[in-house]
Amino acid sequence: MRFSLLISVLRSLGPVVIGISLGFTLSLLSVSWSEDACSPDSKEGEAVSLGKDGLLKGARKPNSISAASDVTSEEDFQPRIVPYKQVQPSAPKKVFRAKYISTELGMRERLFVGVMTSKNTISTLGVAVNRTISHHLDAVIFFTGSRSRKIPHGMFVVSHGDERLIWNMFQTIKYIFDHYINEYDWFYFVQDDAYTEADRIKALVEHLSMDRELYMGRPEEFIGGAMEGRYCYGGFGYLLSRSLLLRLQPFLENCRNDILSARPDEWLGRCIIDYTSINCVGEYEDLCDSFQGLHYHHYELAKNSDPSKEQSEEFKKALTVHPVSDPEQMYRLHRFFTEIELQKTYDEIAKLQAEIKNVSVVAFEGNRSAQWPVGINPPFEPKSRFEVLKWEYFTEEEIYSCIDGSPKCELRGIDRMDVADVIDTAIGELNKKYMPTIHLKKQQLINGYRRFDPIRGMEYTLDLQLEAVNQKGHSRSITKRVHLVRPLSQIEIIPMPYVTEATRVHIIIPLTLQDRSYVDHFLEVFASNAFETSENAILTFLFIYDPVEAQQVSQNDIFASVKSQITVYERKYPAVKIPWISVKTETPSQIKFMDIISKKHPVDTLFFLAEVSTNINSEFLNRCRMNAINNWQVFFPIHFQEYNPDVAYHNQPHPDTVDLVKDAGLFDRRSFDEACFYNSDYMTTRSRMVADVQENEEILENMDIYEMFVKYSGLHVFRAIEPALRQQYRYEVCNPRLSEDIYHRCVQSNLESIGSRSQLAMLLFEQEQGNST
Length: 773
Known about the structure:
about 775 residues; alpha/beta; six-stranded mixed β-sheet; five-stranded mixed β-sheet; extended; glucuronosyl-N-acetylgalactosaminyl-proteoglycan 4-beta-N-acetylgalactosaminyltransferase activity; signal-anchor
C-alpha cells in the first residue's frame, strides 16, 4: 500500500524534479561556457570585472566584445540624465515615377522601321512608301542626307545634313542609339525603292526571340571576296535585333574611323562581323526555339514588270520586292499583296463559318444555336413594346420614311447608292448558289424593308422579281425573298487633333429691337458664371439697326439702355470689358454680320455665336473649346428650350431653376443659331462661296452659317445635344425676308416651345369646360 502511494507521488513530482535538475545543469554549463569565451591572454581587470568571490559580474553573451577602457566598475558608475531632444522629421525623398507604366516595367514595342531616302526621292518614292506601310506599323521614320525645302505631310523625317552615304548610315545608327534603342526590340531598315509587305514583316518579328543576336536579310558576298562572312543587301531591307545593336554600340566610332567602303549596307555588315562575329542570315534557325526555320522571303523585280502578271510562288510569299522604279508601281504592288491578304482573310472566315456550322449540329439547341449570319451578333431583342425596332419601306425610286416627316420622298444620294448595292449583292449571292444550273437576272424590286440594329448593323428584307434562265435557255419569272445584313465593322480609334481647354472664347450676341428686354437677365446670369469666375471668354454685343432706326440713332438710340447696362457691369468688374459693334441691315443674316465680325478679329479666334436668351456657363464653354477644332471640325450644339412657364406651370408657382424633364422643355432640333467655330475656318469656307454669291447675291440671306459649313467647308460638322446649354422661353419674331426654309423652322420652333402636347391638351380641356359652363 505504501509502495503504491510512493509510486503515485513520484509520478506527479517526477517531471518537476527532472525539469529543475535540467535547468540547473544548463545554467552551470552556460556560466562555464561564458568564462571560456573570454580571451585567455587577458589580464586581471582588462576584459571583465571579477568580484571578491571570483564570480563573473555582468556576464555578457559569448559573441559580445568590449574594450578594457569601456568597462568600469560598479562602484565608479555615476548615473546621468540624458535630456530628450525631439527628432526633426526630414523632408520625404521625392520618388521618381515614369510617365508610362511600360517605361517603369521595362516593356518595349516590337518593331521600329527606318526608311533610307534622299531629297530627290522623298516626295515621290518616299511618299509612296509612307502611304503603303505607315498605317500598318507603329513607328516609321525617314532618314535623309539633306532636307528638301518642303517635307511631305504626315511623314517623320530626320535629316543628317550631309549627302555622304556612309556618314548617313553612321548617323542613322547613332540616332537609333540616342532615341529608340530602349523602346523597341527589333529594327528594320529598308530603302525607299523597295516595297515592304508590312503585315508580313510584323508577323516575322512576332515569331522571333527578342534576346537573340540576329542580323537577317538577303545574304550577299563582300565585293572582291577578300573578307569572310556575308552582309545583308540593303535593297531588300534587313532586320537587326536590339541585343545585337547593344553589343555593337561601343564599337560604332571605331567602325566609322577604321572601315572603308563605298556602300552603306556593306559598311554596316563589315562593322557587325568585325566586332560581333555575326553574319547575315536569310533563315532563322534555333533548335531551342519553336519557330525555327523562318525565312526572309524577297523578290527581285524585273524592269517595267507588271505585278498582276507575276505568278511565281516566290513573288507571292515575298516580304520585300526590289527595285521599284516609280510610285505607280509601288501602289500596284501594294494592291496586289493586299488582295492576296484579303483573299486569305475571306478563306479563313469561310473556314470558321463551316466549323461553327459543324459544331452547332451537336449543340443543345441544334442548328438554332448558330446565329445567322455566322459570326455576326444576334439581333436585338426588345424588352417592351417601345423598344421594337421599326422597319422602313422602300422601292428603287422612293422611301416611305422621310427626315422632314413627309410620308414619301425620293430615294437619292447615299440612300439610293445603298439600295442599289444591296440589290446587286443579293443577285450575286443567289447566282453563286444556283449557277451554273440556273442564272438569275433582276427584273424589279417588289418590296424592300430595312432597319438599323445597333448590335449588328443594317438589316434588309427584299422581295425580288427575277428572271430564271436554265442551261437550255428556257426562262421564267420567279419571286424570291432574301435577307441581308450589312454588319458593323470593328471599333477603331480615329486620330483627332490635339485641343486644349485654355483657348479664349469670343461670345457674339446679336441684338435686335425685340431682344432688349432679355439683356438684363442675360447679363445677370453671365456675370455670375463668367465674370465672377474669371472665365477666359470675351463677350461682344452686335447691335442690329434697320435703316430707319439707324437714321434716328443720334436722337433716339434703341440700344441706349443696353449700353448703359454694359457700363454698369464694366464698373462693377474693372477687369472686364464688353465691346459692342453696330451694323445696319434690312435682313439680319448670320453670314452678313459674321463677315463684319470676322474682319475685326485674328484668324485663330474661337467664336461662339449665341442668342440673348441663352444661359451660358463654364461647362458648355469647355465643350465648345473641345468640340470646335481648327481646320477639322465645327460644333453646332442643340440647346434645351424651356417651355412657356404659363403653360408648363399653369396655376402653379414658377420654379427658380428648371430641370431636364419632359414637362419642362425640349431639345430644339430646329434651331441652328448657336455655333462654335474658328475664324480661319469661317474665312476659308466663306471664300469658297464667292462664285455662287456673284451669280446670286440673295444666297447670303437664304443661307445660314450651318448650311454654309455643310455645303462649302469640307469640315466635320458636329451636331450634338448639349444639356449644359439652356435657353429661356421667348417668342422669336420670324423675319419673312429670310429664306422660306429658315422662316419655316423659326415658326415651327416657336410652336413647339409653347408646351408639351399633354399640357396644351389640358389647357384646351379647361377652356372647353369653361365655355360649356
